[in-house]
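User: Structure tokens for both sequences below?

Assistant:
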Amino acid sequence: MCLADLEFDYINPYDSASRINKVVMPEFITEGVLAFFYLITGHWCMFLLCVPYMYYNWKQYSQGQHLIDVTEIFNMLGWEKKQRLFKLAYLIILLFLAIFWMIFNALEDDE
């Protein structure tokens, strides 16, 4: 949303970058904790689906590319929007798979 607001000049680049950069580390930590819970509870398929996302996040963090630079935000606007939408779609797919398996297991145990 911040990137769309920035594209239409509703918000300045500094505010947009600071809002986005505030949620980057909690996003990484949340995905890592979720993958760890999948691992210790024995949900191997869900854990394996989380591994590419965690690897991508780790690679960005280790290269120092995980934060948005205020001075380069307009140059990278199209790429950042595509990247954020892809990540959102990936997380939504993981959420629906988790809900599906939870309902499937609850119904299987009930019979």
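Moving on to the next sequence.
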Amino acid sequence: MGILSLIGVVAFVISFSLGMGAIPWLIMAEILPVSIKGLAGSVAVLTNWLTSFAITMSANLLLDWSPGGTFTMYAAVAAFTVAFVTLWVPETKGRTLEEIQSSFR
């Protein structure tokens, strides 16, 4: 179970760094129109911090249940967010805000 826990922690950290850890900050800066940037940015940051809070608060309870299973579950959720970002968040490199917004229509 020790090696499964280690693999789960590493996979979670990598997936979280590529997905939910960074995406709210990138979306705020590059995708949101100026008219809603403040409100939508606040919601994105709140969601990011609430997710981190939920992970922190559930960790001890889940570790009592299964150390390997806890980090494997966290890694699976984080991997899902990486897949979501890859499939649904548009590429912004070299595009104007208007071009990015038109890809949502």
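User: Anything stand out in the second?

Assistant: Helices lie at 2-18, 23-30, 37-65, 67-88, 97-102.
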